[in-house]
Design goal:
This protein is α+β, with helices and mostly antiparallel strands and 607 residues long. Helix content is 36%, strand content 24%. The strands form seven sheets. It has an eight-stranded mixed sheet, with helices on both faces. Strands 1, 2, 3, 7 and 8 form a five-stranded antiparallel sheet that branches. The structure holds one RNA strand of 76 nucleotides.
RNA sequence: GCCGACGUAGCUCAGACGGUAGAGCAUUUCCAUGGUAAGGAAAAGGUCACCGGUUCAAUUCCGGUCGUUGGCUCCA
């Protein structure tokens, strides 16, 4: 387990959680005496135990409540946990009726590890411990049996699916309550909730799962991001291309994707005896752009960018709001370089990420270098020497960049090492926002070449990069990151104009026209609602600025400005005067125009 | 894909022993013309996700499908 205790308090909590898992097993055994026990480890928020229930005995939510009562009762019975060291043979006898335990015993015995059991009351479990010495150490108000889930034995989809029962457990009831409260708060910031409330995107059964509709307000964010990416990439020396979303199947045989990913691609369309696939990625298309004309070393590095429309037939069970969809638009580009240029280009890609994150105020992120999984070497194509070189080069680039990173020995792409950027939303959820690769394989596969100084033909190195990931996942992230209160440049509505009475509608329209002329996204509330209601309406939609216009404003050709209050969630630096003394219309517009142009995270009216 | 849970009006949710349903908000209309987070009234809105089965009768019970979701697996 990775959850080794590192302090006395943590150690005590670890013991309590672990012991609760055993008490849960006791309750479950009473409910289904023939249940097969798998494992019951401690996790960050408590514990779980995996079971294989007898036919027809899968517990209902009602049963879970009973387990909870039973565990509570057991915990209050002052049961001792008694540890015992046993031999493999004794263990085999003791757990003869428990096939999963037997499997564990064989493994442990093979590795020459000592076996221990813990006995609590009439229940003995194979377990490395540690546990409480007596259940009176457990706070019986600080845990709940929360929910069930399916989980494969040993995390392998080829194995049986077991029923996992999760428990939340903390050192005190206060901490448990705090955890539940925090989860509730997190739900309010959940991009699915906010997306509905702020009318950013929607799904429709008739269209299909994982295929989002971008509503007008959400589309504004998408376009702003895309414009920003185009502007930035232009400055960084990228050229834009457009490639089809559909292709004859052979392209994906050339790339090697088809045999590997057939199941997660939309099925082919057959027409005039040809199979066409909808593209799940843009790479091969960009390679074809590269090879459309002969290339010289002088053309390199060649950076081809496209917000490409990709479709992947993801497993229905893995779809998740905007974060995991079947139709996505990717901030993709491929950089074709000489061997000498590759590291520098890779470093620049990392710098580009840093730039994007800085503008968006994403300060918690890290890189993860995914190398080949030694247990699954068959997945990876290409020459060993190329892999070594690519791994060295990526590592070097990461060193140079000085961004913190960790190395993982699995998860590389089949054609090269992968560098992911993990970012964390304000509710603590981690996202892989961007994946990048250094690829020495596809160039050869597609016979890409350029003529070098000496007239020889060489294969370019290829960097795959996508700093803003897909619109879908990235905006999903941004919704949670900003809790729906986007910086002004990204806000669907930037200024909400609220006339005090009907008689001010005409003036409101004038102010509106001035905003629109300045490129500010404005709306006038012409409803017959009360002033308070109109203000509230603008505020629940998290509009950055409300212009209130009444007699005073008409007379002075001004607007009274209400600045969005970010409440307790706000960063200190975002503190603003909520009410701004009436400003001339032109002046107010100029200030906000500048804030938008700067893509500022902060209000121009900040203190 | 797998295991589980859930699906009632646009949204958030009530509801019943099996006898075709209700609230708040949103929408529309009317009244009020209001100076900073919900003014008042009325109307309209549902094949209770869909398809089968049991039943005199199904939104309610059973089965299947679709969708959402908690996890597991996967993620070029």
């Amino acid at each position: 387990m990775n959850n080794q205790p590192d302090s006395k308090e943590a150690d005590q909590l670890f013991r309590s959680r672990h012991s609760l898992a055993h008490l849960l097993a006791m309750a479950v055994l009473e409910y289904d005496p023939a249940v097969k026990l798998a494992i019951g480890p401690v996790i960050d928020t408590g514990f779980y135990y995996d079971f294989e229930f007898s036919t027809g005995k899968i517990p209902t939510p009602e049963d879970l409540k009973n387990f909870q009562k039973k565990v509570k009762k057991l915990a209050s019975e002052n049961i001792d946990f008694i540890v015992k060291e046993i031999s493999a043979d004794e263990a085999r006898k003791e757990f003869a009726a428990q096939p999963y335990k037997i499997e564990l015993i064989e493994e442990l015995a093979k590795n020459g590890e000592n076996l221990t059991t813990y006995t609590s009351g009439n229940f003995t479990d194979l377990c490395a411990g540690p546990h409480v010495t007596n259940t009176k150490e457990i706070d019986t108000d600080a845990f709940i049996i929360s929910h069930t889930a399916g989980a494969y034995w040993k995390g392998d989809a080829k194995n049986n699916m077991l029923t996992r029962i999760y428990g939340l457990a903390f050192a005190s009831k206060d901490e448990l309550d705090a955890h539940l409260k925090q989860k509730e708060e997190a739900l309010k910031r959940d991009h699915r909730e906010l997306g509905k409330k702020l009318q950013l995107f929607a799904f429709d059964e008739e269209i299909g799962k994982g295929l989002p509709l971008w509503l007008p307000k959400g589309n504004v964010i998408k376009e702003e991001l895309e414009n920003w990416a185009k502007e930035t990439e232009k400055k960084w020396g990228y050229q834009r291309v457009t490639t089809p979303i559909i292709t004859k199947e052979n392209l994906f045989y050339t790339s090697g994707h088809l045999p590997l990913y057939k199941d997660s691609m939309y099925a082919p369309i057959t027409i005039e005896d040809e199979h066409y696939y909808i593209k799940p990625m843009n790479c091969p298309f960009h390679h074809k752009v590269f090879s459309a004309h002969p290339k010289s070393y002088k053309d390199l590095p060649l950076r081809l960018a496209e917000y490409g429309w990709c479709h992947r037939f993801e497993d229905s069970g893995s779809l998740f709001g905007l974060m995991r969809v079947r139709g996505m638009q990717m901030n993709d580009a491929h950089i074709y370089t000489t061997e000498d240029q590759a590291i520098n280009e890779f470093v620049d890609v990392i710098k580009l990420h840093e730039y994007y994150y800085k503008v968006l105020g994403v300060d918690k992120y890290e890189m993860e270098l995914a190398l080949r999984d030694p247990k699954n070497m068959a997945k990876y194509h290409g020459e060993e020497s190329d892999w070594k070189l690519a791994e060295d080069m990526t590592m070097k680039a990461m060193e140079i960049s000085k961004v913190p990173y960790k190395v993982v020995h699995e998860g590389a792409a089949f054609y090269g090492p992968k560098m992911d950027f993990q970012i964390y939303s304000s509710i603590g959820r981690a996202f892989t926002a961007s994946t990048n690769q250094l690829d020495l394989f596809m160039g050869k596969r597609f016979n890409l070449e350029y003529t070098d100084k000496d007239g020889s033909k060489k294969t370019p190195f290829i960097i795959h990069r996508a700093p803003l990931g897909t619109h879908e996942r990235f905006i999903g992230f941004l919704i949670e990151h900003f809790a729906g209160a986007f910086p002004t440049w990204l806000s669907p509505v930037q200024v909400s104009i609220v006339p005090i009475a009907d008689s001010h509608h005409e003036y409101a329209k004038k102010v509106f026209d001035a905003c629109i002329a300045a490129g500010i996204r404005a709306e006038v509330d012409y409803s017959g609602d009360s002033l308070g209601k109109k203000i509230r309406e603008a505020k629940v939609h998290k509009t950055p600025y409300i212009f209130v216009v009444g007699d005073k404003e008409v007379e002075g050709n001004t607007v009274s400005i209400e600045v969005r209050d970010l409440g307790n969630d706000s960063d200190k630096t975002k503190e603003v005067e909520n009410k701004v003394a009436p400003l001339l219309v032109d002046e107010a517009i100029m200030k906000i125009e500048k804030e938008i142009k700067d893509r500022s995270l902060y209000s121009v009216f900040k203190k």
